[in-house]
Design a protein that fits this description.
globular; four-stranded parallel sheet; two-stranded parallel ribbon; alpha/beta; 12 helices
Length: 331
């Protein structure tokens, strides 16, 4: 399967198949009796959040990439490797998002379950941009309906590791998917209120193509899908012309990407007599601060949907779907 092979080709050989739970290890989970919480390490917040929601009190989750950390560029540290080596299970997003951690994940998969959440998402819901040369765009979480399919991968893996609590995992997964369905509906309805001529989302890098497809936005990023790509002068000039031609009023910065390229767009448009503002800061590759509503997947997407809707002239509650957005998020 295309979405598995780029990162864990060796693991597929070791495991003998591509199912989310069996792509793992020689470790024997049948001896786990459920008498203690499962120790889990997740690579990014969006994955960690699924595990916490599905596992409930039966998991203790540690996270490698925190708020503001770019997973495209992150390399596992010595402390990360030590943490991974002492855990029961590892969950990661996949689709090459954590490309620089590939060797570490492969090594860990020889002794414990290592589960790619996106393996449960049907290929028909994945985007394959031409510039990625046969690989899928990894930013699936920006389409809530697609990302919710990953809940099944987590439920299945946890149930196989800890059969004693399988029914609880199933109940938790069902409840979480219901919340995600509500969030997706909010996204569809809120973003549809933006005037058609204003449905242009310009951000630092191409992390929001899934959001565009799911919710009817034209999406333009200064950088490519990976933040390793550099924004060239030609690309900046093209986007400046587009901003002026389409009378785009707002562009967006990202929490995990420097804003320099967005400032260049604003300055370029101003030089041509067109004023553009920063519509807000979006969460692209990382969630908000730990302990906040925006530090959850639900809060992250509620924030993004609400900020984009309001900045581009649509109608959405100032505090978002659940009325929980912070003051800074709703400005």
């Amino acid at each position: 399967m295309k979405k598995l092979l780029p990162i864990l080709a060796l693991v597929a050989l070791l495991a003998g198949c591509n199912s989310p739970s069996s792509e793992s290890s020689s470790s024997d989970s049948s001896g786990f009796d459920g008498s203690r919480p499962i120790q889990v390490v997740a690579t990014i917040g969006m994955v960690a959040d699924i595990v916490r929601e599905v596992g409930g009190e039966h998991v203790e989750v540690s996270q490698i990439c925190g708020p503001g950390v770019d997973p495209h560029l992150y390399k596992a540290t010595r402390d990360d490797v030590a943490m991974l080596s002492s855990t029961d299970m590892v969950f990661y997003s996949g689709l090459m998002l954590e490309g620089k951690m590939s060797d570490t994940l492969i090594k860990m998969a020889q002794s414990r379950p290592v589960v790619p959440v996106t393996s449960a998402i049907d290929d028909s819901k994945l985007l394959e941009p031409p510039e990625f040369e046969g690989h899928f765009d990894p930013h699936v979480w920006n389409d809530v309906s697609a990302w919710s399919a990953g809940v099944q991968a987590v439920e299945t893996a946890l149930a196989e590791f800890d059969p004693t609590h399988a029914s609880e995992f199933a109940e938790n997964a069902k409840a979480y998917v219901a919340k995600l369905d509500e969030l997706h509906k909010y996204g569809v309805e809120a973003l549809a209120t933006i005037p058609e001529s204003s449905r242009v989302l310009v951000t630092s890098h191409d992390a929001f193509n899934y959001m565009g497809k799911a919710y009817g936005l034209e999406v333009e990023g200064v950088q490519g899908i990976s933040t390793e790509s550099e924004a060239g002068l030609k690309r900046i000039a093209e986007l400046v012309d587009m901003l002026v031609e389409k009378d785009v009023k707002a562009v967006f910065i990202e929490s995990s990407v420097p804003r320099k390229s967005i400032d260049s767009l604003i300055e370029g448009a101003k030089a041509k007599g067109h004023d553009v503002i920063v519509g807000g800061e979006l969460f692209s590759d990382a969630m908000g601060a730990e302990g906040t509503y925006e530090g959850t997947y639900l809060g992250m997407l509620d924030h993004n949907i609400t900020i984009v809707t309001r900045a581009l002239g649509g109608e959405a509650p100032e505090k978002g779907l659940s009325g929980k957005l912070s003051e800074s998020a709703s400005e």
